[in-house]
Amino acid sequence: MEWVSADLEHCPLIRSLAVLGKRWTLVILREVFNNVRRFEDLQQHLGVSPSVLSRRLAEMVDDGLLERTPYREDGARGRQEYHPSQSAWALFPVLIALMQWGDRYVNDGKPQMSMVHKTSGLPVVVDLVPQGSPAYSPAEVELLWAGQPVDQPLD
Amino acid sequence: MEWVSADLEHCPLIRSLAVLGKRWTLVILREVFNNVRRFEDLQQHLGVSPSVLSRRLAEMVDDGLLERTPYREDGARGRQEYHPSQSAWALFPVLIALMQWGDRYVNDGKPQMSMVHKTSGLPVVVDLVPQGSPAYSPAEVELLWAGQPVDQPLD
Description:
The first copy, chain A, has helices spanning 12-20, 23-33, 39-46, 50-62, 86-89, 92-106, and strands spanning 66-71, 79-84, 113-117, 124-130, 141-145, 148-149. Chain A is α+β, with helices and mostly antiparallel strands. In chain A, a hairpin with a 2-residue loop joins strand 5 (141-145) and strand 6 (148-149). The longest helix of chain A is centred in the middle third of the chain and has 15 residues, at 92-106. Strand 4 (124-130) of chain A pairs antiparallel with strand 4 (124-130) of chain B, so a sheet runs across the interface.
């Protein structure tokens, strides 16, 4: 395959976009990365109707991005949480890179988002690096907004 | 801003997706990164009508992703090339990360895409790393498909 003459049907970028091309997919991933994983919480944060959210979550389960996990609170009936799958966690750097780009290039003010290593507090970036370079997992990084901590993924 | 209670209107992810949410934006970026920058070449590679392509390119110029550069071939009238802007090059790692994800997690066979450093031939990845880590520019990396070189960006 030459990139310039790539068969669009088999292009891995097109394959990604077929799954991620819906804007809401990445927004829901942002929430579940951030430990917002229960239907009611997702609905409240995203402000969508139950039927729309239900359909989107089901699509993401079908696409292998989310996994349903049962839970039960005292006195309530059993419900489901939506956890990011391994393939979803593999998108964490993509999501962060998109957020940093939007913050820097689409924001109308100065960039406000940054990312630091939780223990050392040193700045973290998403970049093209040699395989085997010291790198962090999503659980090791913390997002800052205007220098203040924001809730971070807990997995 | 707490991430969990983020104002969606000001979320940098939403801002990115407002610009990049159209599937064709990233596909056109893939082409111009790969030095396919003339209208006729883009049209041939993408198989879209001139009017559709013209509208998409104009939107990307308005969004600050592409810059028009005049050129003239012998005996022909002046035309325009579409070059990636600085903000577009800042998306190169996002595009590569998306391609690698699609190749690994959406592909129905085994992953076929890899990325190497042009000079050393050593594998390159997109990852969360400490700021200041040795990193590569887009011009320093080469994409491989099934172990074979594919055309790479020339800027």
